[in-house]
Design brief:
By secondary structure, the chain is an all-beta fold. The chain has no helices and eleven strands. The model has no long low-confidence stretch (mean pLDDT 90).
């Protein structure tokens, strides 16, 4: 039986994973030192990414809530995150520092930085 999950980030610096059908909070993920501005599930649903005012992205194992990696490299709040759907393990993050960064979520390695995007950018990943 599959369970539909929803993730929510909060100004109390936590992320909650909810079971949609029951409204029950299943897990509370703690580790950020600032408001959680964005959350995104990996395409396979096994990982959750969270972006925060603390300038970091955290990667979590959905089934256990374990923290897998903390990605550092932004110099300001992280407002946007999105997994690349056509290539396993790639995450993009957008920040108040006017950059979009591409990460390898398996290693935590920063792959590329795109500069010059206006602050509080929103984006999505698409392949054509």
């Amino acid at each position: 039986m599959s369970v539909s999950l929803l993730a929510s980030g909060s100004r109390d610096n936590t992320i909650k994973l909810w079971e949609v059908s029951t409204g029950k909070a299943l897990l509370t993920l703690k580790g950020h030192r600032g408001w959680v501005e964005s959350v995104a599930f990996s395409p396979d649903g096994l990982m959750l990414a969270s972006g925060s005012y603390d300038h970091t992205i955290k990667l979590w194992e959905v089934s256990t809530g374990a923290l897998l990696h903390t990605l550092t490299g932004h110099s300001d709040a992280v407002y946007s995150i999105a997994f690349q759907p056509w290539q396993d393990g790639i995450l993009a993050s957008g920040s108040e520092d006017s950059t979009v960064k591409w990460w390898d979520v398996h290693t935590g390695e920063l792959l590329r930085t795109l500069k010059g995007q206006y602050k509080k950018n929103e984006f999505d990943c698409h392949q054509s």
